[in-house]
Write a structure and sequence with these properties.
The complex is a heterodimer of chains A (115) and B (114). Chain A is mostly beta strands. Chain A has one domain: Immunoglobulins (Immunoglobulin-like), CATH 2.60.40. Helices cover 0% and strands 56% of the residues of chain A. Chain A contains no helices and 11 strands. In chain A, the strands form 2 sheets. In chain A, strands 2, 4, 5, 9, 10 and 11 form a 6-stranded mixed beta sheet that branches. In chain A, strands 1-3-8-7-6 form a 5-stranded antiparallel beta sheet, with no helix packed on it. Chain A is globular, with a radius of gyration of 14 Å. In chain A, 36% of the residues are buried. Chain B has 114 residues and is mainly β. Chain B has a single domain, classed as Sandwich (Immunoglobulin-like). Chain B has no helices and 11 strands. In chain B, the strands form 2 sheets. In chain B, strands 2, 4, 5, 6, 9, 10 and 11 form a 7-stranded mixed beta sheet that branches. In chain B, strand 7 (65-68) and strand 8 form a beta hairpin. The radius of gyration of chain B is 13 Å and the shape is globular. Classes of the chains: A mainly beta (115), B mainly beta (114). The interface between A and B is medium-sized, with 21 and 23 residues.
Chain lengths: 115, 114
């Protein structure tokens, strides 16, 4: 069966450290993978997209890697801050056309950064 | 730029009653999505529109859920009759030319069925 698994439901780290979140999938062949941030009571907010032919993407303090052999994506937040505390969702996209189609979401990892 | 607007924000209904949610996407976005997010889970796509046509409604429980986007802009999602397991957040999202590969979500409509 198809699965998207995100590491531990909750991750607690100290301010200034690097947070690493994992997204593993089985029985999918994604064209791209996205990471979203979701705060309590709010909708998901897009952070980064990485395509199947890309190994790594960076945006400010965020870094995403994508290993289609391992079927895994790692999401890193460097120099983490309490304001980074939120739930982070990974989502797989299967469409290789121009229109964004269905996204398949994991359950999310709740990150807490403490001072 | 205004974001995706949704209403109502919160709704409590009894089982077997009906409810409707409204969504206004970002101006110019041709693609509109309705996702259902049950507490503790990731969002699940219910239906996707391209302009006023349905692209994907394979996960929509059509015996009780319906959605329309008559003029290719606003959309309405209806549930009738509601079941307890429909308690969730209903997220509307949109994307289009100029948004790159980004889907923009609204704040969601929270439904509690009692």
């Amino acid at each position: 069966s198809q699965k998207i698994e995100q590491n531990s439901e909750a991750l607690n780290i100290q301010e200034g450290k690097t947070a690493t979140l994992t997204c593993n999938y089985t029985n999918y062949s994604p064209a791209y993978l996205q990471w979203y941030r979701q705060d309590p009571g709010r909708g998901p907010v897009f952070l980064l997209l990485i395509r199947e032919n890309e190994k790594e993407k960076r945006k400010e303090r965020l870094k995403v890697t994508f290993d289609t052999t391992l079927k895994q994506s790692l999401f890193h937040i460097t120099a983490s801050q309490p304001a980074d505390s939120a739930t982070y969702l990974c989502a797989l996209g299967l469409d290789r056309g121009s229109t964004l189609g269905r996204l398949y979401f994991g359950r999310g990892t709740q990150l807490t950064v403490w001072p | 730029e205004a974001g995706v607007a949704q209403s109502p924000r919160y709704k409590i209904i009894e089982k077997r009653q009906s409810v409707a949610f409204w969504c206004n996407p970002i101006s110019g976005h041709a693609t509109l999505y309705w996702y259902q997010q049950i507490l503790g889970q990731g969002p699940k796509l219910l239906i996707q529109f391209q302009n006023n046509g349905v692209v994907d409604d394979s996960q929509l429980p059509k015996d009780r859920f319906s959605a329309e986007r008559l003029k290719g802009v606003d959309s309405t999602l209806k549930i009738q009759p509601a079941k307890l397991e429909d308690s969730a957040v209903y997220l509307c999202a949109s994307s289009g030319e100029g948004s790159g590969n980004t889907i923009y979500f609204g704040e969601g409509s929270w439904l509690t069925v009692v």
